[in-house]
Each structure stands twice: as structure tokens, then as C-alpha cells.
Amino acid sequence: MSGQRAADEPYTTRFETGVSAVDGRRVWLETTFFYAEGGGQPADCGSIGDVAVEDVQRVDGEHVHVLAEEPRFRAGHRVLCSIDWSYRMYCMRAHTASHVLYGAARRLCASADDGEDTEVGDDTLGYAGFDIGDETVRVDLEAPTTIDDETLVELDRLVNRAVWESRPVSWETVPVAKAREREGIAFNETTEDGAVSSGRVRVVTIGAEDDNDANGSRNPWDVAACGGTHVRNTREIGPVTVLDWSSPADGVTRVEFAVGPRAIERRETEKRATFATKRALGVGIEAVPDAIARLQSETESLRTELTATRRSLLETRLERAKSVDRDGSRWLVTSCSDVPLEFLRAGVREVVESDAVDADVVVVVGHRDDGETAAVIASVGDRSVADIAAEFGVTCDDSGRSERFAQVGGFEVSAAELVDELVGHQ
């Protein structure tokens, strides 16, 4: 036994029992089928008598029911208890789905290791945590191989295939020592302490020993120590959609998925996006990846051409730049406001460092994203750009600033007027 009747009789949602004790809003019952929060699964909600249950916790091995308000009943009274079936069933589906996903991940890791779709030992994939949220569920895996977007697609396929195959779900209690010796069982005593009681551990099995699935995998699909509530058959899980993955810690991959309405909504979003993409590309769904790859290649080629064109334009402008003498230093001043300032910063640096200009100071005037006139300054001689910027009456922007290159902004004149002002100041 796991110490929670709810785990062993998850379909029981109405029962009558005696009240053992009442302390304000906290209630102890002689017998309870409410699931107390634990192992990543939230507490049941419902009512005791006519008072809503807000939380259920296990304290010193006993269930403590926290009510929304102080009840009128007292110790010794009999009460009718009702568990919210909709939420209980959601948790049962979500928890069982997490076991199915773990089994799918083990098979994918095995395929990555040896190229075959076979059952995997405990040393291949580790279980690092689990949590049921109101809309999404997460499973943390200690994975030896990288889990990426392509893996998510395969996880989604395998999970929904296992649901479709209507695999039986069963649970039993066995001695802890026996569970530790069993090959292929997921048993993390840190995360599943709620599954252990009096030297015995509750083991949940997805599938049967003699099952055979479309992938030729050995069964059962998954065996794990677990104290949570589960459905009796994978077909009761319903739709599952794998949502995303992340890496919350080194060696840990977090997979998020949804069951029920949230899963259906996500599928709708993905399908709408897919249809919109195929219409925009003018191809069938199967051809979308290739069409996107072609567009990416074309975009990269255009980006390369654009960069080369901007570089050529900048060089031409510098070749035609007005040369002025300011206090014995030769300045090259030009405007290139039709090129983004971000490119000008990099372009001016490349041109100057290639010794393509003959000047002590280079000033290229352009515009910031907000439309304000700005300039890129390069010091070819000994003076710092900060000193040069001081002659403009402005300070250097911190972004990308160095002793020889900087961007200055905040001018209240147009680009053309700034160039004329600089050229005319001789």
C-alpha cells in the first residue's frame, strides 16, 4: 500500500465516514479517498459535508483536509464526502500519460544507442521529476542523448500509439528489496517516497508481459514505483499532445505535454499554423519542410548579396567622401543614411581596419532606428573617439564602443545638415 486509498481505488469518489478530529478548517477523517498532494500530483478537491475542500496534505502519515471554512460538524459526526470527479479523472489521465511518455522516451533512447527499438535498462534513462499543472504536465528526464524537436515528434507519436493500443494499467505492492532487484523498473526513491510504506513499494505497470506492439517493442510498456492515481487502461487517457522541451539543469531534459481539452486546443493551433503555411507556400503539407528549406537558402543568398551591396555602397561613399582639415587632422565625412546604422558600425570598422582609407578620422552619418541622426566615428590616428565626439558636443554610445570606434547620436539636425556642418567647419 502507498498509504493513500485514492491510489488503490481511484474510481471511488463518494463515500461516507466518521470525523476523527477538527481543528479550525483542518479535518481528520476515519477513512478517506481524497488524494493528498505528493509525488508531483496535486491534491484532490471536492467537499466534506457541505464544505469545499481546498487542500489535502499528509502529515505524520495522516491525511489533513483543509476546508474553505470552518465546518459545523465535529469529531464523532458522520459526513458524506464527494471528490470532484472531473479533476480526479484529469489527474488520473495526466499521471498515466506521464508513465506512457517515460516508456516512449526509454524506447527512443534505446534506438539512439543501438539502432533498435527495444526495452531499455535503468542505466539508459533516468527519472528526475514530475508535476501535474492545471493545463500542462511536465516530466523531467535524465537523458543520455539529446532530446530535440524531432524527438518530441516521435514521443508524441509513440505516446498516442500506446493510448490507441488500449494497454492495460495495473498496480500492486511488492517488497522494496524485490523492486530494487527488478530489471527495467523506474524506481527513484527520492521522488517516489510516497509509493513506499512499511517496507513495500507500490508498482504501476503499463501493458502486460506478453503484449506486442506495432514497433516490436518488448513489454510491458513501462513499470515504475508510483503512489499516484491512474486509469485502468491507456485508452482512458484520451488525446495527448507533447508541447515542448527545455533543459532546467545539466543532464536533465524537461518535456511538457497536455491531455484532454488543452491537448486538443494545441493540436488545433498547430493544424491552423500548418494549413496557413502550406497556403502561403502554395504546396501540400508533406512538401512544407522542403519549401521552407528552399526559402531559407534563398533568404541566406539574398542576405549575402545585400551585405555585399551595402559594403560596396559604403566603400563608394567613402571614396567620394568630402575631405576636410580640422586642426591639422584629415577627416573624411560622408552620409550613408540609406544603410542601417548597425551595418555601418561593422562596415566602417572593416573598411578602416583593411587600410582602405587615407585619413585620420572617418565620420559616416546615418540614422538610428528611431529616426534620429547619428554618426559612426573611426579614429585612424592617435586620438580617442571620445575626444573626437566631444567636438560634436555629444558623448559616445556605450554599445560597441572602443578607443578607435564609436557611435554618437542625439543630433537635432538632419544627416545632410550634419555633413554640411562638419565639412564647413574647417
Number of domains in the coordinates?
3
Pick out the low-confidence regions. 115-122
The run of helices and strands is HEEEEEEHEEHEHEEEEEHHEEHEEHEH
User: Going across the major beta sheet, what is the strand order?
Assistant: 1-2-5-4-3-6
Structure overview:
Belongs to the class-II aminoacyl-tRNA synthetase family. It comes from Natronoglomus mannanivorans. By secondary structure, the chain is of the alpha+beta class. 33% of the residues lie in helices and 29% in strands. The N and C termini lie far apart (93 Å). A six-stranded antiparallel β-barrel has the order 1-2-5-4-3-6. It has a five-stranded mixed sheet with strand order 15-16-17-18-19, with helices on both faces. The model is unreliable at 115-122 (pLDDT under 50). It has three domains: 5-83, Beta Barrel (Elongation Factor Tu (Ef-tu), domain 3); 89-277, Threonyl-trna Synthetase, Chain A, domain 2 (Threonyl-tRNA Synthetase, Chain A, domain 2); 308-424, Diaminopimelate Epimerase, Chain A, domain 1, CATH 3.10.310.30.
List the helices and strands and how they pair.
Elements: H1 5-8, E1 14-23, E2 26-29, E3 46-48, E4 51-59, E5 62-67, E6 78-83, H2 85-114, E7 126-132, E8 137-142, H3 149-164, E9 169-175, H4 176-181, E10 196-197, E11 200-206, E12 222-225, E13 240-249, E14 252-259, H5 261-281, H6 288-319, E15 322-326, E16 329-335, H7 341-353, E17 361-367, E18 373-379, H8 385-392, E19 405-411, H9 415-424
Parallel strand pairs: 16-17
Antiparallel strand pairs: 1-2, 1-6, 2-5, 3-4, 3-6, 4-5, 7-8, 8-14, 9-11, 10-11, 11-12, 13-14, 15-16, 17-18, 18-19
